[in-house]
User: Fold this.
Amino acid sequence: MTALLGAALVLAAGGLAGCTTAPPAPDGAAPAPAPAPEVSAVEVVARLTPSVVTVRLPSGGLGSGVVYRPDVVVTNQHVVGDARDVVIDYADGTSSPGTVLATDRISDIAVVRTARGGLPVPEYRTELPRPGEPVLAIGSPLGLEGTVTSGIVSAVNRQVPGSATGGTPLVDMIQIDAPISPGNSGGALLDGSGRVIGINEAYLPPQSGAVALGFAIPAATAVDVADQLLADGTASHSYLGLVPAPLTPQIRSALGVRAEQGALVARLDPDGPAAAAGVRPGDVLVAIGESPVATVTDLHAALRAIEPGTATTLTVLRGEQRSELPVTIGNRPGS
Assistant:
């Protein structure tokens, strides 16, 4: 079972690069809900470009950001680093000071207050996209503001280890083939109707042997963490220690899974709360406490609603057996 799961979920990793432009050197699932009707890419870009900004650091580095509130921008933590004061460049050619309010290294999310108000807030889609959905990425690669690239969602729930990122592991990521480059970090990943489905995060550079492998933080994660950071400057990360996979008809058939809904447990952290509770790879998780889990999106939503340290139950299907396993929700390592 583990070998079959692993074969379907292996991610070729090596030398993952963040999408932030560094200072110049001296002198140089079960299906998600149906998406909204798509409109032309030209219309989406015209409408959403004013909601994407460039974040410039005093050191000369830069990244991108997305309007979250009329005077708040969300970006990546690795874009702003330890900086407190930044400059925000807007699509209309103007700029204003920005103040970094709070950051979270685990999710790689930061929130920045802009001196300019009345910024256009886009719609954030918190349901996970489906592989194959068309996407647009908007940002400032290499300082080229308002650059738009297109592609599709290649996969969801990707896990990229810290050994590949050179820092904090990336979890539950959206994988895309839309080209992103240094400077795209913190920019918007949009669905076909112009909703923000992710915050662009990193890419595998060509020297790693990769072609068009990029990653974005799901909008649901960005919204959850941004709201926590704006509330009190900190963010907690409830943790089960499992990697879920959509329970598609193909997976059900290949693995002989009889459940029709739920989140398939693809991998486990052997030291995590789920493993301690008795969950095994190949189990189908159908509820957390009183919250039903029909999809991977449901799993993430239920987990976000539970504080670390909470005692609850995991309802799993293993073959024809249904079990309720007591578990204490953990806090993601490094939080």
In short: Helices lie at 2-9, 41-48, 77-80, 162-165, 219-232, 249-255, 273-277, 296-304. Residues 94 and 288 are 48 Å apart (CA to CA). The longest strand covers residues 147-160.
